[in-house]
Structures are given as C-alpha cells and as structure tokens.
Here is the input.
Amino acid sequence: MGLRWYHFALWGGFILFMYLLPEFVSRGTLRTIIFANFLAVFAISWDVISGRTGYVSFGHPFLIGIGAYTTAILTKRFGVPVELSIPLAVLATMAGGLIVLIPALRIRGSYFALVTLAFMELMYQLVQVIRPDLTGGTRGMSGIQTLTRGAENGFYMSFTLLAVLSVGTWLLMRTQFGTALSAISMDEDSVAGSGLNTVKLKTAAFLVSAFVAGVGGAFYVHYLGSLAPRALFDINFVFTIIVAALIGGASTIVGPIIGAFFLTFLLEYLRPWLPGAERYFIYGGVALLLYMYQPKGFYAIIMAGWSRLRARMARRKPGARA
Amino acid sequence: MLLQILIQGTLLSGLYALIAVGFTLIFSVGRVLNLAYGAYLMLGGYVFFFISQQLGAPAVVGVLCAAVLGCAAGLLKYRLIARPLGDNPVAVEISTLILAVVVQSGIVLIYGDSSKILLPIVPGVIRVAGTSVTYNLVVATLASWAILIALYLFVQRTHIGRAMRAVSMDRKGAAISGVDPDVINMITWGISGLLGAVAGVFFASYTQLSPSMWVGPLIISVAVVIVGGIGSIIGTLIVAHIVGFMEVIVIAVIAPELRGVFTMGLIIGVLILRPRGLFGREEL
Amino acid sequence: MKRVTSLLAATSALALIAGAASADITVGFIGSTSSDTGLSTLRGAQIAIDEINAAGGVLGQQVTLVTADTQEDPTEGVKAYEYLAETAEVDFIISGSIDDVSLGWLPRMQEFQIPTLDTWTSYIGIIDMVVEDPELMAPYFMNVASDEALATLYINFGADVLKGQFGYDSVVILAEDTAFGGAITGLVTEALAPVAGIEVKDIIVYDINTNDFAPIFSKAQNSGADFIYQISSVNAQVISSQYVKLQVPMMMTGVNVAALGMEYWGDTGGAGGGISTLSPVPAVGFALDDRSQAFVDTYQARYDSRPFYPHFNGFNAYYGLQQAMAAAEQAGGFDDVAAWSAAMVNQDLVLEKDGKMWLNYGFWDQGEVEPVTGRTYPHNVKFDLEAPFDDAQPSMVVIQWQEDGAVGVVYPPEYANMEITLPSWVE
Here is the structure.
C-alpha cells in the first residue's frame, strides 16, 4: 500500500483537529460543517464510481435515496430499531448499486450518464406513485427518529462517519484494486486485455460506492429527521455532489472533502450579505469558473503548489548548486 | 377515442421532435451531451415573454429575437466551454450541467420563481372529433415539421450540411479531407441553440414558463436520443412520435399518473435491451 | 502596543453592540424570498414589526427581523432554520414555507423549541402531530385553515350551488398526483358525494409534469360527468390555462393554488378566466374590513415589486405576528415556551365590517371539538364550517376569476360579492 509516516501524520492531525473543533467554533458553524461532512461522504461515494472508473453518473442520488428511504420507512412505519434498519438500508442500497451496474456492463460514456439520470428520475416518479402511504408520496416524511440532538453531537456523529468512511475508502484505493480502477478510466479495453476481469472490478467499485452512499444516506435521514423526494431526487443535488467532488479533486479521497467543505461554506457564508437568490447564482458561477480554470480541482492546485515548494526547498539544501 | 389519440399524439410528437432535434445535433456531430440544452428552451421562452408580452411586440418578432439569442448562446457556449475543454467530453458535460444551474439561478433573480403562461402565438381553438385542439399547437407542430424538413434538406443538400454529416461519421476522416471540425462544431452549436430557443417558445406557449422548465425538455431529448440511438434527423422524428404517442396512450388508456414512469421505463428498457437504440449509431 | 490597544477597543465596542443587540427581540423569517408566497409573509411580517416598533416595541425592546431564505427547497429549509436558531439566535420564527419545506424543518422546531408560526402550510398532518404530542409541538401554530377544513366547507358549496343552483348530479375529479391531491380527492369522494348528492363518475390522476392536458380533458368529457373538480397545487397554471385555451365545455372548479394571488391574471396572460377555486381568507377579490384595507394600503405604498397585493398568507403574517408579540407581552417573553404557547392559544382578534364579525384570528385549543368534522384542530386558526359563520370566520371562500380578469367571492353568500357564472364557451 505504500503507507508513509506522513500519511498517518496528516490523517491523524486532521482527525484530531476536527474532534477539537467544537471547542473553538460556534454551534451555527458546526451545523454547517455537519452538512459539509455529509456532502463529503456523498461526494466520495460518487467519486469511487465516476471519478475513478470514469463512468460518470448523473443520478447518484438514486443510491443515496434508496438508503434514506429504506431506513426511514423501516423505522417510522414498521418500528424497526435503528440498529437493524441502517444495515438493511445499506444492503438495499448495495442491491441498488447492482441495478445501476447492469447497464454499466453494456454501455459506456455518455450513455451511461444518461441512464443514471433516468434511474434517478424514475425513483422520483416511483416514490410518489408506489405506496405513498409508506413513502409519504410527494410530501415526504417528517418526524423520523433522530440519532443525536444538538449541534455538537450531530457534528461528532457526522464527522466520525466521514472519518471512518474516508480513511477506509482511502486505504482501499491504495491497494491494487484502486490502481486497477484508475486504469479502467483511462483505457478499459487494455485492462481487459491484460487479463483482469473488468466485470468483477466494476462490480466491486459499484458495491463500494453503494455501500458508502447507503451508509451516508441512512445517517443523513436520521440526522435531518425528515426527507422529501423533491430534495433527494433532484438535479440540483446531483449538481452539488458532482461539483463538490470535481472542484475538490476527482479520483482522490481528500478532494471531495475539500470540495464539499468549500462549497457548503461558500453558500452558507454568503447568507448574511446576500439573503436571497443571488447566493445561488454566485455559488454556481464560482463553481463553473473554478471548474473551467482547473478541472482537476483544488487537490491538483495544492499538489502543484506543494511540489513547487519542495523543489525550491531542495534547491536551498546545502551542497546543492544555487 | 382512436381519432383523439391520433390527433393529440401527432401534435405532441411534432413538438417533441422539434425539442429533441437540437440536442441530437450536438450529440451526433459534437459527440457530447449538452446538459444545458434545456436552458436554450428556457432562454427562448423568457426572451419571447419579454419581447412579445412585456414589451408588446408582435409574436413573430418575439420568435425571431428568441432564435437570434439562442444562436448567440450556442456560439458563446461553444467558444467559452466546449472548445477549451474540447478533448474531455466529460468535462464539457459537467460544465454544461453547472451552466444550466447558473442560468436557472439567473432567471430566478430576474423573474422570481413564479411560473408564467405565454399568450398563444395564434389564439383560438377548434373542436375535432370530440376533442379540442388549439390553433397554437397546430401552428407549433406545422412549424416543427417545416423546420425539421428544412434542416434535413440543409444537411443533405448543402455543403456545410454535408460537412456536418462527415464530422458526425468520422471526425478525423473529415479533418483529413479538408473539413475544419472547429468551424463545423461552431455552426452546429449555433444551430442547436437556435432550434432550442424556438422550440422553447413553442413549448412554453404550450405549457408554462418557469425557472425549472429546462429539466423536462432535457429528459424528453434524452429519451429520444437514447431510444433512437445517435440519431439522424429522420430517426429523431420517428422516435419523437414513439415517445409522444406513448405518452398520449398512457394518459388516455392506462393511467395518467404513470406518464412519467412509462417514459423513464422506456429509456431504461431500451438501454438495457438494445443499448444502441432502435436505429443504432447512425450518421446525421 | 498601539495596535493591541485599538484592537481591544474595537473588540469591546463590538461586544457592547452585540450585547445591546441581543437585548432586542429578534424575529426570523423562513421561506423563499423569490416567491410570491414567501414575499407576502415576509412583507406582512415586516409591516407588522414596523408598526409594533413605532408603538414602543415589545416588553420595552425593539423588534428586528432576520431573513433566512429557503428557495423552497426542503434541505435549505433545514439549514435556514438552523441558521435562525443557532447563528441568529432568534426568539420567534414566522414561516412562509410551503408544505414539504415546513415538514423538513419541523424536527428542528421540535428540538430547538422556538415559537414558530406557519402562515401558508396547511397540511392537516402537522395538526395531527399537535394532537398527538402537545408538549413537543407547543411552540407551533398554523394560522391558515388546515386543508381538511378547507375542503369540508367546500361540500356546502357543492350542495348549495353546484347541485342546488346548477343542478349538477355528477362530477369527474382531476387530481394531481401528490399527497395533497390524494387527500382532497378522499374528502371529495367521502363527503361531497354523499352530502351534496353528487356522484363521482371518475377520478383521473395526472402527473404533475404533464405537458398536454388535451387527452386528460378528453377523458374527463368522456366520463359523462356534469362538471370537473380539479385539485392542483403544483404547476396549477398549466391545467387552468389549457382549460381556457382548449375551451373545455364543462365547468371547472375545485382547488387551484395558482389562482390564489392577483398575479394569476398577468402570469397567465389572461388565459385563466372561468375557473373557480376555494381560497383561504382573505382571498383575492375579498371585501376587506378597514384595518385590513389599511394594511393593504401600507403594503402597496411601500412595495413596488411583485406581489403587488399580498396573498392571504401576508395577512396571516401581519396579524399573526402581532398576536405572537402580544402573547410574549403576556408571558414575559419567548423563553418560557409553555407560557407563551398558552398565551398565544388565547389570542383572539376580531375584525369587524359593517358592525358584524368579518375576520377572526384565533386558535383552537387542545380538546376543542369542531362540530361538523367532529375532531380537534389544536393550534390551527379558528374557523367556522356552518353558516351563519358567527363563531369564527369561514375556513375558506370560493372565488371565481372571470374572463375579463375580474375576481370576486362567489360563496358563501354572507361573503359573496360576485355572481358565479359559467364560462362563455360552456352552455
């Protein structure tokens, strides 16, 4: 896996810093960070499929929604305890991931993007039409059991989730599995030609992505206490997730985290100055400009700056020529 | 009942064909999904509203302004987004998605989020076979057919049109034989924008104008592209009729609330069973 | 050293200002600042606050208003509520949210226990929550009649006018495929039909993104019913404008949420006349008492962007905010939620016109049973479902838009100022 001391140092430092954060930061900011944490989880989940394998999905909320609705219906309508409903929700989401996988085995590129969009739209329609007594129909559901009360507990829960999922996914991507996935995005036929089973690889990637999405979606709905199809199966939600992952840096774990935090805070901090619709216009505009300037995201910018710094430091070492 | 379905289906399908053909064009020639295509419709509709309803100019002027603005928007989009990110279709698709959201926010800023109904371009209604048919929709369908036929002739007979077909078949080959893909792409995006804006005027005059109206036509266009395959213009026309008639039949015979489910089901079904679409990869 | 001193001075000055500011009463607005609905509530609240401040404030303090925009998105609604609660630390929240946004932030209201008034959301399910858990829902009030009450009074319209005056025996229901559509459909089939003696010939449910209503109207005509009862809260202008453009030869009435504001005429380019719809009070075209008229005059003098006339929830916000402040005066503030809630429930504002009760803003208490429906509506605005409407205002009136753009109240007779007419293309 090639783990170095500085990997531990950076992850450890980050996690420690975040756990100490509630001491210094207001509850309002913690609330914003909680949303950023969840968005980061969703962005990481999206990135596992779309960033790594190159199968860009425009319907990722399809998976998130399965996780959210499953646990919401089980806990609210059937009284199933949360300890059981969340794992069931994750399993349901992984089943959903396999459903999305089927077309991915036959089509690629833009067609795949379209079919994922169609899946999400279909879920939006189905949730309203099929058993609205269970799903809450167009209005959605309210009064769903919440796992935590208060900003601090919500923060600890959401950040623990993010830490576990991101470190886990990060480790996974550093294995040969991760390398193979990246290879698929570059040239799938070569990967197949080199003897690797691309079907198995893709299946694994979709399952991992669905796992993260399911866990994220289930905890998300238990944090919000409510859900609505208009909020979940919405092209704006797609936009937020994709932009978070891309602006932060696709094909990385850190990238989606950076992107999620940047975007969430951008929108929230504009609120006192521009209370209305201007926020979204600026938010979208900034996202577009950033993406066009550097499609590889902040991560690439940071890495480029870091290597320039290292180069300069190397030149300064004694014995090296000036 | 059957006559009603035939009439309503034909009218709706004509409109859907006009909506989808601009999207097909970009996908076929430019090989990229323009997810902000719906925004052309929105821009066209709002420009028409502004010129014809708020300023009071005649409808024809409004449609022309919409067409010009749509063409300009297409060209701008090509220059500022599609060309710089040229070799990365995913980046173009994502940029267009972001752009669509930005345009939506912009419309909300200017007009608020209320929906508006456009005055009909041609007022009046006629009763045929027990169903009411508005002149507006008849005009829209006739205009759609006229535009599509004109486009077909343009693509088949003119020099530029043949160049577009060449690029849609084989980009590199076309470049070798002297066609400049860049110019062709620019023209295609311009035409696509123009078509989208005009389609938007008709679509909005038929349903309503709202900041979120770009999603519906996008889904329709997506359905047509997927079900038909990378389409020819004829293919687009045929598939638009399949989608349009299916909608009318679902509403009239099966259950109106399942309209959306059936459309999505059709898309997914075709993608799973015959991913190339009914007509496969055709050139323009 | 100098920098440190000036920094200290600046910080203490800020602290002083912050300290003084937190002594104010802060009201938070939650809703969309880009929609007519949200703006009606926001402006109604703003005018009420200005009048209160001019009269000396509440408990000796001035009232300030903080805005949290939701863009009518449920997730943004949660963020907005959290912002108001934890960052702006408001004392009271006035909401112009729509149904699913309110449902979105409701769990937060339950957690933070901030006194909240909903002016537009009318979902009866929320009132059911107040019935089930009075303590948890103590801070919540809804001063628009809940949708069940709205539809129930409509049954009398069916019996008196549709059956009595027009002689209609049968109806076809055209309902949008939403929870709201389903709920009202249930009320019509269970109550309108038996009570008014009108048979339901067919129920046609349509997808909210339907572009083409021609096949749906054809189906409605083929059912052989006498009139159409439409239920439409999303994209409602599409069905009503297509009804007019297609000149469907049946009367169409029911619930059309787009027709509840004055902009309906301008927005539809005039393609909206002929339909009637129920509306909460005070509706468009409603004759106003003096105080409400004064509110409208202030509103129109002050605001020159749409909506040019407040929607009904603007009035709800204007009066509701005053009542909330009055309740705070009685309870000594907003901090003791139980005390404030008890004071709010007892608020009773009667607006008279020509010497009799015209509008009445009051609240149902726990355990107060409404005689017609036989159930309780705690924390919902008081309404009367039986003529002569002397216990409270009616839950709704029926308004009609006519083909020349005129709008007025056609039912109940005590409030009517216009005759109901059939559109010119219906014989």
User: Anything to note?
Assistant: Chain B has eleven helices and two strands. Residues 2-30 of chain B form the longest helix (29 residues).
